[in-house]
Amino acid sequence: MVNPPVIVAPEKTKRFDESLSSVALVVLALAGLIAVVLFLWFQVAPRGELASERYLPVPRGASFAYRVTHPDGSVTYRSRNIARGSASTFVSALAPDTFNALMQAAGIDLEQMGTTEALAKLDTFQMIETHDTESDAQGNLKTQTRSRSLVENDGIKQFGVNAVGIAPPIPLLPASNQSETLEGKLNERTPYRYTQQIEMRGSVATPLGELGDCIRVRAQLEYGANRSTSHSWYCAGIGEVLDETTDATGTTRSEIVAASVGGYVRGNLPALPNARVNAASQRVFENPIAGTPTREFDYTETTSGEGVTTLLVPLGDILLYGTQRGALVALDRTTVQQRWRFQTGDAIFSTPVVANGIAYFGSADKKVYAVRVSDGAFVWAFRTLDIVSASPALAGDSIFFASEDRTVYALDADTGQLRWKFSSGSPFIAAPVAQDDLVFVSNDDGTLFALRQATGRVAWEFSAQSAITAPVTLSDGRVYFGSFDSTVYALDEKDGTVVWAHDLSDTIQQPVLVANQRVYVTLPEEMFALDAQTGVVLWRYASDRALWGAPVLCGNQLWILRPGKMLAMNAASGALLDEVDTTQVSSYTGLSSDGEKLFAGFFDGTVLSFRGANP
User: CA nearest 359: which of 349, 367, 369?
Assistant: First the structure.
């Protein structure tokens, strides 16, 4: 739904910039996005198969990477990510001329049609938004392009590139072997002529291997005095794999190096050299938050129903988080605007972990992703047989993650290639934890496994009485965790023998926090502090409402989230120190922090940041 739910036509720009630089930009964008790009979706209405449905089957969350060789011999890399939804979902972000092109394509006359009727009609259309980022081999961003297409009964047609509106909209692949020519205008001012035709069918060699059942399409774009001609290969089940476009500057060659589209997952974008950006969710900080925290900013996702479903991970001047509709979002903490957004095929419950400039996370679309944090570029994906809801763990050049397909996987962090896998008789729900040479991971039948990082072989295992749904906490040679049957355990890290166990008479679904020789345990409406050596209860705090997530320890302050409030307790005694108003809306994961500020995300898409008093 549009936010706010009122359609107002943007003001038209006063003039169209006819400068050579603007013309070149539009030509480049159109040539690349009409002849090369593609972002198509299976039609819902039953009808004869179109070429686009067979050779560009791109669902929501499809991602691609291409190596681009330019006429001067330089090489860049292009990453492509695709989002899909009702047209009303995207309309508020459109530039004026692109908005006008959409209204024309949808047959909406705002002067004749009321807002309610116009919204209802927009909701009947599906829209595709493609985000392209192009960077050099060092990861320096060169260009970004957003293009939009509308799903129509006779195919999917592109109506916009960045701020340029295209009317009438252009079909993105020929519907038959016949040559097709379309004439129209850009931004209702500048004429263009576009011709395309399927030239041949066969197989094609690509960096991903030999691909069969492909078509080659010849396309020509004429724009004022400019002309470009492309020859592009599209392969069934994958989409565009190879393109050569020739214009006045020479020939540019684009070839696929990675793809994640439906069940087809292969390849990777080259790793960034010397990237040193790292981040993971942290819960223990040395210093307390100064004074009573005050609200620094609040931000709400613009898409209706786009709830925040992971912890907010502070990373320099951005916050990373996942959403209910499957987007990984980088929110700029200074401007409080989205810096980039990467779309997957389903909800993200896996809090991202960042190492060497790459964010790793899982999705309910049954895949694990690697995405570059500088610009949201797709690096690689790995497909499993079920939902990946837990966060991954990183150690050295390996990434470890657990899937509800009852398997733990170890992958090469740079390429996404499988190193080993370990299976059990029950789904893995909790996030793995890697330390020393072991990976600790538990399943929902209550078994905790200590696996060798190098091989995946079992070093030891321990059986609790019921499911272990939260990751373990390691401290001073011991493994601490709680089980669904209310028992807190402390095991010896070397062999898994029980040091102590304590029953707290309620389910434990959050990770325990261990610091200063205390184990802090969150129950649905209580918090306990136990002695880390003996398991003896040191204090208990009873809440009158539900507690969300695990606590964050800042100096002597133990912060936790509940409906409408953030609470701070004395970590030594459990006495209430402070409380701060938040919102009554539920939170999936609770609080996070960078040691100076506190962050929380909520089911309605709200993101809150709180800062302490200035020193």
Answer: 369
What amino acid is encoded at 51 in this protein?
A
Q: Is 340 left (phi over 0), alpha (psi -120 to 50) or beta?
A: beta
Cβ-based neighbour number of residue 559 at 10 Å: 25
Query: To the nearest whole number, what is the mean pLDDT of the chain?
Result: 88
Is the model's pLDDT at 42 over the cut of 50?
Answer: no
Instruction: Tell me, yes or no, whether 194 and 296 share the same domain.
Output: no
Q: Who contacts 436 (Cβ-Cβ below 8 Å, separation ≥6)?
A: none
Which tokens belong to 446? Answer: 């209550």
Q: Report the domain count for the chain.
A: 2
Q: Residue 277 domain-assigned?
A: no
Q: Do 119 and 244 fall within a single domain?
A: yes
Torsion sign (Cα): 426, 429, 430, 435 = positive
Residue 273 lies in a domain: no
pTM of the model: 0.90
Q: What is the DSSP string of 293-339?
A: -EEEEEEE-SSTT--B-S--EEETTEEEEEBTTSEEEEEETTT-SEE
Instruction: Give the end of a domain, one of 267, 301, 333.
Output: 267
Let me know if residue 4 belongs to a domain. Answer: no
Give me the domain span that covers residue 227.
22-267
Are 583 and 531 found together in one domain?
yes
Residue 239 has φ and ψ, to the nearest 5°, of 120, -150
- Same domain as 293, residue 407: yes
95-120 per-position pLDDT tens digit: 999 999 999 988 888 888 877 888 78
Which has the higher per-residue pLDDT, 426 or 47?
426
Tell me which of 232, 267, 302 is where a domain ends: 267
Structure tokens given for 407: 């398997």
Alpha-carbon distance of 238 to 428, in angstroms, equals 31
Q: How large is the greatest C-alpha to C-alpha distance in the chain, in angstroms?
A: 82
